[in-house]
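Extended Data, panel c. Modelled sequence:
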Amino acid sequence: MAKHTAFSLRLEQRVLWVSANGFWTKAIAQQYVREMRSLILPISAKPWAVVLDIRQWEISPAEVFALLNENTAWCFANNLKHVETIGADNTMVMWQFAKATQAVKPADVVSTLKDDELAARQSLRAAGYLF
């Protein structure tokens, strides 16, 4: 498990739990992409899921969006099939999230917004990613 002040990553079965916190610089986004991909590569031969908790994320510079968009496309190309987003109460953060994840989503990818970790966990159990 990687722990930072800006993000945390935790792999549980076929689910990557991501928590984005605070203000992200380009360097933080680059570190996130590196660490995230190193966790995912070993399981990417089969479908996997991600939970993106952005409740504590803050408005970050636009240069972060391009990196995160490219990473979203990489995830889809590497078998990401299910996305659960735990959204923020901040309209600007939600707009930022939309900009940072606007890569073309394959038709077979499920993507939903949840209120909390429990709701995301229930959805992932129902979909077969958690047992």
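The beta strands are 2-3, 7-12, 15-22, 48-57, 80-86, 110-114. This feature is highlighted in the accompanying rendering.
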